[in-house]
Amino acid sequence: MIRVLLADDQSLVRAGFRALLDAQPDIEVAGEAADGEEALRLVRERAPDVVLMDIRMPRLDGLAATRRITGDADLRDVKVVMLTTFELDEYVFEAIRCGASGFLVKDTEPDELVRAVRAVVDGDALLSPGVTRRLIAEFAARSKEPAAADALARLTEREREVMALVGIGLSNEEIARRLVVSPLTAKTHVSRAMVKLGARDRAQLVVLAYESGLVRPGWLG
């Protein structure tokens, strides 16, 4: 079972998400929090697989709560998906840098929410390809000069190639077609790159691709 914690200060939003997720045979809601402090406490108590975290909450906002979760080694396996009213919310990009695995708009289609929860647990995608490309395009536009690429020396040539394709928003299936390999092989290369670079998930791999200079703004096709 995939265990999900809901963190949102609007009870109606939490109730809607709970009804949808609890109806799935492989997903259960592990708890609800109305503010960031409560979310942090419940994450530590119940260790859910995924936290659906609203950005704007009282006491402790979702960004600060996410930073504490992703910075805690004991919570390394917990994936955080940010909830926002607008797809290009300015705080989303900081959340990705802080270790969030992606984001969803609150009015997303029900099947997309369920698919996203499963996908983020698998570590197979940064949510939907369309949202991914918009996120990456915006991240690229805001990115600073790339840092030294010393960390990339740990990667093989093929792993660097795959990481670059992840960085421009391709899914494992798209990478497989581009490189004429199986999707499983593509996923293996992605996973190895994440391990070698200490990336929590695919979202951080995208960030590292830009910050290392492996991918540059304007490469989106």
UniProtKB/TrEMBL annotation:
Occurrences of domain HTH luxR-type (ranges): 148-213
**In which domain of life is the source organism classified?**
Bacteria
- 4-aspartylphosphate PTM sites in chain numbering: 54
Which PROSITE patterns does the protein's record reference?
A: HTH_LUXR_2, RESPONSE_REGULATORY
Q: Does the keyword Phosphoprotein apply?
A: yes
Q: What are the recorded GO MF terms, alphabetically?
A: DNA binding
Q: Which Gene3D superfamilies match?
A: 3.40.50.2300
Keyword terms of this UniProt record: DNA-binding, Phosphoprotein, Transcription, Transcription regulation
GO BP terms: namely:
phosphorelay signal transduction system; regulation of DNA-templated transcription
* Residues forming coiled coils: none
- Give every Response regulatory domain span: 3-121
Protein known as? DNA-binding response regulator
What is the originating organism of this protein? Streptomyces monashensis
Q: What is the lineage of its organism?
A: Bacteria, Bacillati, Actinomycetota, Actinomycetes, Kitasatosporales
